[in-house]
Amino acid sequence: MLAKKIIIANWKMNLNLSETLALAKKFKEKFAGFKEGEVVICPSTLTLDHVAKIIKTGKLKLGAQNVFWEDKGAYTGEISADMLVEAGCEYVIIGHSERRRYLFENYEMIHKKVRAVLETEKLAPIVCIGETIEEKESDKRDFVLVEQLQQALSGIDVFGNQQIIIAYEPVWAIGTGTAIEPSEAEYAHKIIKLALNDMFGMQVVSKNFRIIYGGSINSKNVKKFADLEDMNGLLVGGVGLKADDFFKVVKEITK
Fold first, then answer.
1. Amino acid 2: pLDDT
2. Does residue 50 have an active-site annotation?
3. Catalytic residue among 98, 105, 135, 169
4. Top-tier CATH class for 6-253
5. H/E element, 128
6. Is 96 noted as a catalytic residue in this protein?
7. Which of 109, 113, 132, 230 has the largest count of CB atoms under 10 Å?
8. Mean pLDDT, the chain, as a whole number?
9. Which pTM value belongs to this model?
C-alpha cells in the first residue's frame, strides 16, 4: 500500500457558502506547514470553485462529494468528472453509504462513476463500501465487502500512477458516535486487501490502492486506529467540521 496516509474531511450538506469559506481558511492556516500526510477537504459542489481559490497556495487538496458517469448531456442536476477537474478537484467520493441509502445509488452506478473518473487521469476515486448492521449480525460482512468491491471495480484496468482509494465505512457506525473496534476494522481491511490482490495483483494494489477507514472517528478514539495494519488513512464526517479537532485527528493518525 502507498505509504503516505490520507485524511479526507467530508463536509456533506452542513455549511452554507460563508461558513464553508471560513472553515476552508481555518484549515489552510492549520495545515500551512503540514508534510506528514495528505489532507483532502470535500465541500458541497456549489462551493468547490470558491474553496479551490482559497487553498490553491496551501497544503490542502480538494475533493468532491459526488460525480456523474457521463461527460455531458441532458442530465439535470449532475456534474461530470471533467467539470470537477476544471473546478480544481483531485479526488471525488463515490458511493457513500448516505447516497446508497437515501438516493438508492447502487454498485452498477458506482462502477460507471469509477470508470468515468479514472478516464480523466486527473481525479482519484474514493470508493465507499461497508456492511449494514443486519449484514454484520448475520455474519455476511466478508461476503458483502468482496461483492461490493467486485461490482464496483471488476473489469477496470489501472494504469501508471492512477490512485484508487477504498473507504471502508461500516454503515451502522456512520454518524452514531460509536466507531468500530480497531481489531474489527483491521480484519475488514485485510479482507479488502486480499480481495483487491485477487482482482488486480499484489503489485498493482501496493502501488495504486489505499484502504482507509470511515465511521465516527474523533480526536478521542483516533489513537486506537493509528497503527493498524493495512490502514492508510481516514474518511471523516463530523470531526471534519471542527478545524482544531480535525487537526488533532490528522496529527495522531500520521505520527
1. 54
2. no
3. 169
4. alpha beta
5. strand 124-129
6. yes
7. 113
8. 94
9. 0.96
